[in-house]
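Retry 2 of 3 after timeout on previous attempt. Resubmitting structure tokens to design endpoint.
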């Protein structure tokens, strides 16, 4: 009969945090820690969102974050001043900068390009995160809220490890098997039947595009996913089908706060970044205001609770967005009505407009723009729209569409891109790029003991603050050593065989045998927390961390205590 043994890795002694901390201020530990990340949110996006809220609601001149703004952060990769979401949030979670595309993984050395010295011997090493430390060392509940698909960079940075952020078949099972208590966001198509079976067998309520089911759920543990991949932008969201990020945040806090030991929660306003990449100011400001409402919910809980710290910080800038552009002569003397009246009438994002235009006949174009944008298109703009390659209802046959006679600033092969350009052309907003930018980002924070992270700091120093606020009884380095040791070190006294995967998306298997006793054998599959023991897998060892395999060095990273278990098997 198969038995399951729960293998816990707990700290034996109190270990001080790294001595290299450059912000050694006293930070009072708290019971609960909420980290909120408006992905790719540059400060001008916050400014425009604040102006638009004030313009639309004259009695609401302030954002929820405004009273708590307290500093700035420089975010960067290990070998470049401008980072993407994977290495920047990785640094917040692990304390180590990493490379573009790396999810909570130590980077290879890039010699003179490294901003700080790196250790070549640690390349590809999975790095323990704040979430994992609070779960393992403090037995706290953990949760993630986001609007992208769940294995996307920022949520993955908290609970998974990979040097390729796009390898969802490595990342998704880690997130499931890391036994997070609450996960709410996008990615229905990425939760496999096997993953759902694991969750259901371990007491989770699992909901796929089921808003009513999520709202009625009374479990402490829950996964609720919406959309095949990402969720809708807030401006395009059907409130009968998908929850707001504020509602998701409130639900996560309500469930996580039932844990008497406390909790860690990360909330990401994921698609602020996506809108910035698309140069879509509507998506940027509406998704930021939706995120700010989620911040209001978290801050309200923290103030009432008295044992919760909230840290709100973007992971990097994006798009070089500005309020004011050379393409809008005299913009600096325009009134608030001249700057914001037209823009305030936009009811859909560029993506939402594209979807609407592709769902209605061409005869309805002007009605659509009158209803959702408060304007009518000129003949030149109608002509430009008809030339867009993926506009399904264009009166111009696909093979006859061209850029001839189209204003160069509007010509685009993508209907979403066309709409972003068109909507922006009616404003005095500007963009310098469709990619990430390297300016400092803001910090807003509430701490019940009056010790928020003030001033300017690096992403490394912000991790040090989070660790102090969490009151971790061990360093992240020490936890990394315990739960992510190389299999060649852990099983140096045993025979190891790696059986290759059958295909590119499969995983290899590690077989470990005791040379003196053939019955002492471990069968290890990566990206889960389950190890099978015995020649026929008679027993299961359930870890409270995940096993990671890295193909770049053909190494399994797993708890060092597994060797002791192997020796002690009867």
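Retry 2 succeeded. Sequence:
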């Amino acid at each position: 009969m198969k038995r399951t043994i729960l293998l816990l890795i707990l700290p034996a002694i109190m270990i001080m945090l790294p001595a290299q901390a450059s912000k050694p201020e006293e930070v009072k530990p708290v019971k609960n820690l909420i980290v909120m990340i408006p992905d790719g949110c540059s400060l001008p996006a916050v400014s425009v969102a604040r102006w638009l809220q004030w313009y639309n609601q004259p009695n609401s001149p302030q954002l929820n974050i405004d009273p708590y703004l307290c500093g700035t952060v420089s975010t960067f990769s290990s070998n470049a001043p401008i980072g993407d979401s994977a290495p920047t949030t990785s640094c917040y979670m692990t304390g180590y900068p990493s490379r573009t595309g790396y999810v909570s993984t130590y980077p290879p050395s890039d010699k003179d390009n490294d901003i700080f010295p790196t250790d070549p011997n640690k390349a590809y090493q999975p790095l323990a995160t704040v979430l994992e430390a609070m779960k393992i060392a403090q037995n706290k509940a953990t949760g993630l809220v986001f609007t992208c698909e769940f294995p996307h960079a920022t949520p993955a940075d908290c609970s998974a490890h990979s040097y390729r952020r796009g390898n969802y078949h490595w990342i998704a099972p880690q997130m499931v098997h890391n036994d997070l208590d609450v996960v709410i966001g996008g990615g229905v198509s990425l939760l496999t039947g096997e993953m759902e079976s694991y969750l259901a067998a371990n007491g989770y309520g699992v909901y796929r595009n089921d808003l009513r089911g999520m709202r009625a759920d009374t479990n402490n543990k829950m996964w609720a996913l919406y959309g095949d991949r990402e969720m809708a932008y807030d401006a395009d969201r059907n409130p009968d089908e998908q929850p707001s990020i504020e509602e998701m945040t409130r639900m996560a806090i309500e469930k996580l706060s039932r844990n008497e030991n406390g909790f860690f929660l990360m909330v990401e306003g994921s698609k602020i970044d996506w809108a910035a990449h698309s140069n879509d100011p509507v998506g940027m400001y509406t998704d930021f205001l939706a995120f700010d409402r989620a911040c209001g919910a978290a801050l309200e809980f923290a103030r009432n609770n008295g044992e919760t710290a909230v840290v709100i910080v973007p992971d990097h800038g994006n798009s070089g967005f500005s309020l004011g552009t050379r393409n809008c002569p005299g913009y600096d003397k325009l009134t608030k009505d001249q700057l914001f009246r037209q823009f305030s009438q936009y009811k859909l994002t560029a993506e939402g407009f594209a979807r609407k235009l592709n769902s209605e006949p061409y005869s309805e174009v002007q009605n659509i723009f009158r209803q959702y944008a408060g304007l009518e298109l000129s003949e030149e703009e109608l002509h430009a729209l008809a030339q867009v390659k993926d506009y399904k209802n264009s009166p111009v046959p696909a093979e006859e569409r061209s850029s001839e006679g189209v204003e160069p600033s509007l010509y685009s092969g993508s209907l979403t891109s066309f709409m972003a350009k068109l909507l922006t052309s009616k404003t005095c907003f500007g963009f310098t790029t469709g990619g990430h930018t390297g300016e400092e980002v803001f910090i807003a924070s509430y701490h019940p003991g009056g010790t928020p992270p003030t001033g300017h700091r690096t992403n490394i120093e912000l991790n040090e603050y989070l660790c102090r606020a969490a009151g971790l009884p061990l360093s992240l380095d020490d936890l990394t050593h315990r739960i992510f040791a190389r299999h060649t070190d852990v099983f140096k006294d045993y025979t190891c065989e790696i059986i290759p995967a059958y295909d590119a998306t499969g995983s290899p298997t590690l077989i470990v045998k005791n040379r003196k006793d053939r019955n002492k054998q471990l069968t290890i599959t990566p990206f889960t927390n389950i190890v099978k023991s015995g020649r026929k897998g008679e027993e299961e060892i359930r870890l409270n961390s995940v096993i990671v395999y890295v193909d770049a060095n053909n190494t399994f990273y797993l708890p060092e205590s597994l060797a002791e278990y192997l020796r002690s098997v009867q």
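Attempt log closed. The longest helix spans residues 281-305.
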